[in-house]
Specification:
The protein is of the alpha/beta class. It has eight helices and seven strands; from the N terminus they run E-H-E-H-E-H-E-H-E-H-E-H-H-H-E. A seven-stranded parallel β-sheet has the order 3-2-1-4-5-6-7, with helices on both faces. Helix 2 links the parallel strand 2 and strand 3. Helix 1 runs parallel beside helix 2 and helix 3 runs parallel beside helix 4. The radius of gyration is 17 Å and the shape is globular. It starts with 11 loop residues before the first strand and ends in a 7-residue tail after the last strand. Bound molecules: NADP nicotinamide-adenine-dinucleotide phosphate. The site of NADP nicotinamide-adenine-dinucleotide phosphate has 29 residues, from helix 1 and helix 6.
């Protein structure tokens, strides 16, 4: 297939949480469709591994170390993207942090950490990327979760944060629709990543979580990346403020 025929041939994509899991797989998938990709996260070695995987797939990528909850680092991340590749078309605001336990165990520090990464991280990425996205009529895709639309016992802080970003996305979609910037959300259920391995860390837990998905299995990072690429593409040009569930039926029950 020629470069011209690829969906994201002239596009630059910034991915937060690109050092592993869904973010890494999406970086490879975007690059396979011609995008130049900036990958960010806190872990340098893993970020460079993602860059190597993108290059192995025939794409171009750059890593920048950034903590999404630090405004100065987020500003540098956006500046690095524009300096390296000349523009910014798509932000995949995907960095996230899980939390589990009874609310009696939740500390103020836990709350702040979960909200800082899952919510403030998206707020800061949007705030500093939107001026660039207005120039390119670009779009933002945010990773929420099935836990963003239903309650789950003993996951309360994470559930609260993932609900919050859906409301944030709807509001940003309305705020920037007149300027041609779309904002959408992808909400996965259980996906085989490092985060999921920390969550379902015993065979019993894995069995129980798998059983919560009517499709009878957990998902793959590529199944989420495919949905991310669709909403980020011109094929989704009439979609904004949407939350797309990619959850094996988890929230349909
Ligand atoms: P993962 O492999 O653990 O990836 C999480 C990513 O978030 C990593 O790249 C991590 O990078 C990044 N991150 C965490 N804290 C950060 C911070 N302070 N600053 C910058 N980056 C940070 O897990 P994943 O499943 O792919 O998670 C991706 C997204 O999917 C998250 O938003 C998660 O909530 C969501 N999700 C996952 C599932 C699932 O079952 N896996 C289900 C629903 C939703 P560094 O450690 O390098 O900073």
């Amino acid at each position: 297939m020629s470069q011209q025929a690829k969906t994201f041939a002239d596009k630059v994509v910034l991915i937060t949480g690109g050092t592993s899991g869904i973010g890494r797989e999406s970086a490879i998938a975007f690059a396979q469709q011609g995008a130049r990709v900036v990958v960010s996260g806190r872990r340098q070695k893993e970020g460079e591994e993602t860059v190597a995987l993108v290059e192995k797939a025939g794409g171009r990528a750059s890593f920048i170390q950034a903590d999404v909850s630090d405004e100065a680092q987020v500003k540098s991340m956006i500046a690095h993207t524009v300096k390296t590749f000349g523009r910014l078309d798509i932000v995949f605001a995907n960095a996230g942090l899980e939390w589990t336990g009874p609310i009696s165990n939740a500390t103020v520090e836990d709350y702040r950490k979960v909200m800082d990464v899952n919510v403030l991280g998206v707020v800061l990425a949007a705030k500093h990327a939107i001026p660039e996205l207005v120039k390119t009529k670009g779009n933002i895709v945010i990773t929420s979760s099935g836990a963003g639309v239903v309650g789950m016992p003993n996951v309360s802080l994470y559930v609260a944060a993932k609900h919050a970003v859906i409301g944030l996305a709807k509001s940003l979609a309305l705020e920037f629709a007149p300027q041609g910037v779309r904002v959408n959300v992808i909400s996965p259920a259980a996906i085989q990543t490092e985060m999921f391995s920390r969550f379902a860390n015993t065979p019993e837990m894995l069995k129980a979580v798998t059983a919560m998905h009517p499709i009878g299995r957990i998902g793959t990072p590529r199944e989420i990346a495919d949905a991310v690429l669709f909403v980020a593409s011109d094929k989704a040009s009439f979609m904004t403020g949407s939350n797309i569930l990619v959850d094996g039926g988890f929230t349909a029950q």
